[in-house]
Design goal:
The chain is mainly α. It is about 75% helix and about 0% strand. It contains ten helices and no strands. Helix 5 (about 80-95) packs parallel to helix 9 (about 135-155). The longest helix has 27 residues, at about 165-190.
């Protein structure tokens, strides 16, 4: 009788993660994972009660990947811009992951959706350095910047348009600069 191969929980999650990377979350099933492991389905169900539990573990790994992208610009001179570029880069490099995280219905409004991200507060504070706005003003301004950034990320994730990193950087920088000018102009005119 051949010796049974043992796979760790992490190995099972990694295989499922790779499947989701290519096919989306709906691509996960026990047979497909077992085939990639060159095993039966037993290693999967030794670690997970069901496929839904495995999917949750994969989503946790996806969130870790996302957070590693979002902190990649930390400490850079243009951190606010870098977070936008990182968000779009994540969509470009992992379109299936981006769709799972950011292209599904929620019951949240835009401000709460942004603040639900653990990096949200830090990004708002980085934006304050760029704009000179108060925290609450920056929060409102950031929702608009995020809408722009999210739109670009969706276009890239769905391959609706092809944009180079340079084109994305220029588009973000130029548009946000114009948004800041407009926001400050509007604020000054309200005072009059």
């Amino acid at each position: 009788m051949p010796k049974a191969m043992k796979y760790s929980k992490e190995e099972v999650v990694q295989v499922a993660y790779e499947i989701v990377k290519e096919e989306g979350i709906e691509g996960i099933n026990a047979r497909k994972i077992a085939k990639k492991l060159n095993a039966s389905v037993h290693p999967i169900f030794n670690h997970f009660e069901n496929i839904e539990e495995l999917k949750k573990a994969v989503v946790e790994k996806i969130v870790e990947t996302y957070h590693s992208y979002m902190i990649s610009g930390k400490g850079k001179e243009k951190y606010y811009k870098e977070t936008g570029l990182s968000y779009i880069r994540f969509a470009k490099d992992f379109p299936q992951f981006f769709k799972i995280m950011f292209m599904n219905p929620t019951k949240l409004d835009a401000k709460n959706f942004i603040m639900a991200d653990s990096a949200g507060d830090e990004i708002i504070k980085a934006g304050q350095i760029l704009t000179g706005l108060s925290y609450e003003e920056q929060k409102t301004f950031h929702v608009e910047v995020w809408m722009l950034t999210h739109g670009i990320a969706c276009l890239v994730a769905t391959k609706t348009v092809e944009l180079s990193d340079e084109e994305i950087g220029e588009l973000l920088e130029n548009t946000v600069r114009q948004m800041i000018i407009g926001y400050k102009f509007e604020k000054e005119n309200k005072k009059k």
